Structure formats: C-alpha cells, structure tokens
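ok trying again, last paste got cut off:
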Amino acid sequence: MFLVACCTSLFDPATRGTIAEQVRSVDFANLMKVAKRHRVEGLLWNALRSAGIETDAPELVPLAAAACAIAQQGLRASTESARIQSVFAAAGVDLLFLKGLAIGQLAYGNAFVKMSWDIDVMVAPDDVGRAANLIEALNYRCVTPAGDRASFERWHVANKESVWQSDDGLRHVELHSRLTDNPRLIPTIDMDSPRQMVVIVPGIALPTLATDELFAYLCVHGASSAWFRLKWVTDFAGLLSHRDAVEIERLYRSSQSLGAARAAAQALMVTDALFGLPLSTGLREELGRSVANRWLAAAALRELASPREPTARPLGTVMIHLTQLLLKTDASFYWHELRRQVHVALATR
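nice, full thing came through this time. structure:
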C-alpha cells in the first residue's frame, strides 16, 4: 500500500506528505522487490524524489539505476516510434500506437517514468503483410512466430499480434492486427475508431485511441491478465485521476456499448479498491450488485497481492483463464473463449 501511495503521488501531489510520513517504517529491500515485480520502479523513484525523500542512500542505488534505464528506454522508444510513424506514413499504411509512451504521457504528464519494453502498433488486418515488410526494412526480425511468411499470416489469423526484435536486440515492436485475441471483446474498436494525437516530446506526436475507446481497451487489456501488475492499474488510475463521477460513469456506459462488458466493471472496482475513485453511489452499488463482478475484482486483487507473477507459480495462470471466461455474460462468448483457450493450450504443448 505504500507503493500504491507512491504511484498515486505522480498524479495527485497532495499525497506526497503521506509518503514522507510513512517512509521511515518501510523495508526498502522488500519495497524494491515488490516494485520490480509490478514493474513500477520508475514511478517509485520519481515519487520518492517528488516527496523530498533522500534518494542517494545506498539501498536505493539499484532503484535509481532501474529508473534511469526506464527513462533511457523511453527516449529510445520515442525516437524509434517517430521513425516507424514516418516510414509507415510514407508507405501509406495507417497505424495506431497502443499503451506505452502515449499512456505514460496521458496518465502522468511524463512519458518516460513508465516502463515499456516494446512499442505496440496496430494496423488494419489487410495491412499486416505490408506492415511486416516495412518493419523488416527497419532492421527488425519476427521472433513470434518464428518461421516463413506463410506461418506469419496464419498466426495473425488466430492471434492479435506478432513480436519483432531489432537486429541489435535493444528494441521490440508488437504488431497488432486487432486489439484482443477474442474478437468478441470490444469488436467495434478498430482502425476506423476515433483517435487522438498525444505529444510525447516537442516534435513527436503519436496517434492513439480517443478517450472512450482507450478506456474500453485498457479495461479489456488489464482483464485479459487479471490485472496482475500494479503498473496497469496505476496507468488506469492516472487516466481517471482528473475526471469526476459523472465523467467516469459516462466512460463506463460508453465501454458497455463498445463491448467491454464485465472487464470495465472489474477495472473500476480494482482501481477503486486501491486508489479510490470518485464513483457515484449508484454506479458503485450497480457494479457490486453482480456476483460475477465481485468475484472478478477479488480474483484480480489476489493476483496483485501475490509476491510472484502467475507464470512463476505452479498453475499460476489458472485463475487468469477462469476470469477470462467470465468477461461477458452471453453463453456464445463463453464457449468461443473456452475453445480459444483450448486451442492455445494445445498449440503451446
């Protein structure tokens, strides 16, 4: 919860006094383990500095190094994103940037405090082949899936993204042809959806989804992994930090029309439990009235509290798969999602 308070201070400076009061009782060795587990070292470092806490203590040297590496990675990503955008524009291939730098700028007013190991871009399904050629020309190679172009095209039919690595191994691009593995989640959000331009630094502005669509997408993205990293919840909280109860409820209603379903309820309930949201009494009661919503939120909070990520625990991803089955209410979604999970399980054996 001290880590949550630190993350909160990046978009709510009024909480910095609380950090300064509590810091004396903090076990820094354990705090840094938790921060690394949740990939918020950059947020923690900047929060401690902003709160006026001495950050040159020996126990904080690894944290300083991690925060510096995150900022450097962000700077590399910004220049690389601009290069990708320029090459795609010259070729006439439309693209959107997902998560990453754009979310960091929108949530914290600083794109370089948030950890992002890759650059996520989305193109229309019909443009995937051309996009792959452009990324290859930028000295990247496809690492997931490995194989020839035929296997790449088959992969993108069943999966939402492929992973590309630069020749020097320092940069990664995830090429998305849709937002979700299960196309029945937020099916109306695509390349034709409303968008916004986010200025990362002077001279670099990246196109991403407009506010309503971005809200719905982030809900579904977090729900797809049961929100097991605090980084995702903090980004979501930051995006909502300056919005009142009326606007948050409007975003929730919009997400329902876009197909986010229970993922949006889970996102709001988890974020409210950790950060406190200005939800109206009516909306809070509505969300909590559903047994499924309460179970989804509780499952996500348990995943967040675990000292290890799901993939590092025996059968650790079972809970994630169970939550994925309950993200929508109709039986057709349930069976489609169950078949998808079985197919993935068999393909990775």
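cool. Strands lie at 96-98, 119-122, 140-144, 161-166, 172-176, 195-201, 204-209. The first strand starts at residue 96 and ends at 98.
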